[in-house]
Design goal:
Elements: H1 2-5, H2 8-25, H3 28-63, H4 70-101, H5 103-115, H6 133-147, H7 154-192, H8 195-228, H9 232-238, H10 240-249, H11 256-265, H12 270-283, H13 286-303, H14 309-322, H15 332-345, H16 349-361, H17 363-392
């Protein structure tokens, strides 16, 4: 029971239910308390997002300078390519399905927004960010790439210490208060009459994304099976223990021991598996980018925000890098992605809150998709290295 109450997905579910109940049945004076908290927490998020970008991306990119040279480049290229493929697949599928699927909800939301009244906080505090999001992204890339060529750099140690501080902020401040933030968002939507249309949208989006992630795994192993000349269904079946472990842990890092064992059962050499699986646990995020891309498009359609392929192409390329080495806590990838959502897609605080709720609702499946795909990449890298050895011999 204690484990259930400490589960972030369970907390978010309870927050959504309580938010709806409070918004519908509690007086406006009580609901304005939650609106006041959301105003403050939203400001804190805006302040923290550039720091999160610096704290996570900078040391992650600097660490990519370590490793086995060519093997590192091959693995990183395949992992990034897989992540991009998933993101673009999600874009084209979502752009084909969501406009018609969500058309009725757009009209409902527009009517409610015109007639409903939002909750007004009792007071608000402005907390300016020390650096804007795009500057933080560029600075993180520049310093991270520079540090990747430094062997014993004092600045690299500072970056690691800063990463530890940001991890503490995420784990001890942001993640614990996220359910309350989401409660406030749903209380406001229930108070204004938007909640039923939003919930039906959630169900439709989750169904489409679940179908996409099953298709992606089948496609990954069909391609891999053809390359390594093995039965793709058997290869995928061998990875199921890692898939279900990730469903429970919601962490790619925590699933590494199981992923390593199952990759070995698929015939990956221990040396290759020991290098590729831990690396892919931090840089291969095909399931995560699929969810974020689809959810972002759905919310933009619902809010009437215009978008095009060029906008999402840049977003997907940047997101594939921004999520690298997302912290090994539930919802870590969406925390790393918030800055890109704001800077490139223009997401508001309410849209960010809905994104977080949607993402966490599917966090287990995205993580499971990530780690199962890691097994496919390990097979491909193992095949490439064996061919190179045979060629040299």
């Amino acid at each position: 029971m204690k484990q259930l109450f400490s589960n972030l997905l369970f907390k978010v579910f309870i927050a959504i239910v309580l938010g709806i109940v409070f918004g519908l049945y509690l007086p406006e004076s009580i609901n304005r308390i939650f609106a006041t908290f959301n105003a403050f927490f939203g400001q804190f998020l805006n302040f923290a997002i550039p720091l999160i970008i610096l704290g996570l991306i900078m040391p992650a990119i600097s660490d990519l300078g370590k490793g086995a040279g060519k093997l590192l480049l091959i693995t990183a290229a395949i992992a990034y390519g897989s992540t991009l493929f998933s993101g673009f697949m999600s874009y084209f599928t979502s752009s084909a399905i969501f406009p018609s699927l969500l058309a009725s909800h757009i009209n409902e939301t527009a009517e409610v927004s015109e007639n409903g009244a939002d909750l007004v906080p009792y007071f608000s505090i402005t907390i300016p960010a020390v650096i804007d999001v795009m500057s933080a992204l560029v600075l993180a890339f520049v310093i991270g790439l520079g540090l990747s060529y430094q062997e014993n750099s004092t600045l690299k140690k500072v970056a690691k210490d800063f990463e530890a501080i940001i991890m503490q902020v995420i784990e001890n401040v942001i993640i614990p208060f996220l359910p309350l933030f989401i409660l406030g968002i749903f209380a406001n939507m229930a108070f204004s009459g938007q909640v039923y249309s939003i919930l039906s949208v959630f169900i439709n989006i989750i169904g489409v994304i679940f179908a996409m992630h099953i298709f992606l795994l089948l496609l990954q192993y069909v391609i891999t099976g053809a390359l390594v000349k093995k039965n793709p269904l058997r290869l995928l079946g061998n990875m199921m223990p890692a898939y279900f472990t990730a469903l429970g842990t919601q962490s790619s890092a925590a699933t590494i021991p199981v992923t390593l064992e199952q990759a070995g059962k698929n015939g990956v050499s221990p040396k290759i598996a020991g290098f590729v699986i831990p690396l892919c646990a931090t840089i291969h995020l095909s399931g995560s980018i699929m969810k974020i891309t689809a959810c972002a498009m759905a919310l933009m359609i619902l809010e009437g925000v215009p978008f095009d392929f060029g906008m999402f192409a840049g977003f997907i390329f940047m997101l594939g890098i921004a999520m690298v080495a997302a912290p090994g806590v539930p919802g870590g990838a969406i925390m790393a992605a918030i800055g890109v959502l704001q800077s490139m897609l223009g997401f508001s605080e309410e849209m960010i809150g809905l994104m977080i709720a949607l993402y966490i609702a599917m966090d287990s499946f995205g993580t499971a998709c990530n780690v199962t795909g890691d097994g496919a990449i390990a097979l491909v890298v193992d095949k490439i290295t064996k061919e190179e050895k045979n060629t040299l011999a």
